[in-house]
Amino acid sequence: MLEFVVRVVGVLVAFLVAPLVVGQAEHKVMAHMQSRLGPMYAGAFHGWAQLVADGVKFIQKESVTPAAADKRVFEWAPIVAILPYMAALAAIPLAPGIVGADLDSGLFYVLAVMSIGVLGSLMAGWASGNKYSLLGGLRVAAQLMSYELPFVLSAASVAVAAGTLSLSGIVGVWNPWWLLWQLPGMVVFFIAGLAELQRPPFDMPVADSEVIFGPYTEYTGLRFAMFLLAEYAGIVVLAGLTTVLFLGGWSGPGPDSIGWIWTVLKVAAVSLLVIWVRVAFPRLRADQLQKLAWQGLVPVALLQLALTGIGVVIFY
Length: 316
Known about the structure:
Layout: H1 2-34, H2 50-60, H3 71-89, H4 106-114, H5 117-127, H6 131-162, H7 167-173, H8 178-181, H9 183-196, H10 208-211, H11 221-246, H12 259-280, H13 286-315
Catalytic activity: a quinone + NADH + 5 H(+)(in) = a quinol + NAD(+) + 4 H(+)(out)
EC number: 7.1.1.-
Transmembrane segments: 76-95, 107-128, 149-171, 177-195, 224-247, 259-281, 293-315
């Protein structure tokens, strides 16, 4: 019982802290890359209080529910958007034995849980009583349906190579030469993951300057903040899953007792890459999003899966 409580508390603390760290890092990285002065002033030294200022801003804003909204669905949408990432984080191992729930089908579980997040966007768009929000929700759904296939296929390639769906098991059999063998799959997985999170340059369905923030138009205050927090939590989950599947998880120089350090460093590196992509690339149009998914990522993911199968038959 004590071990169960410790694991639950550990997952909860990680879920509450890691997305906030990523959010703070995004402020600072973007400020440096785009020469923004504002995020460097809050709290004096290097703008350490910028995230605190954002939190106070959201708390002070009134949470408004439109008169035409389906109030119950409208209120539950932010919770449905954020909870799947906490559930997914529970199955991602930090080091040998350090995991919320070490499942035999951990990869299947995480991919299934992450796909539930789209319901939050659909609920938000439908329940707002706003036709523009509804259109934004449908565009989010269309994008996620397109990128779910290459996302799952590239992850399946690693499962075939490892011969297991256990995330800890995948790390256990990971080999450095997989960095070359599974490289196309890793690229597809990362790009599809960005699209799943609606991160730039794949944020056309929620682009604030073009479609008034898509399904989240009517949200204010803490409810709106929960959608933003869900995005940062998704970055942590995507970075953690990329680390476990393609970068060897806790594998690194030194004993396994310090493996959690390597996991944290790799997750941080992937998270920084996510932020860099946001700054470096322009937003794609809706037709370009679909073309990239079906004509680019899906064929590469299928080819990677086929090559992995051939490699397993020949070398294992």
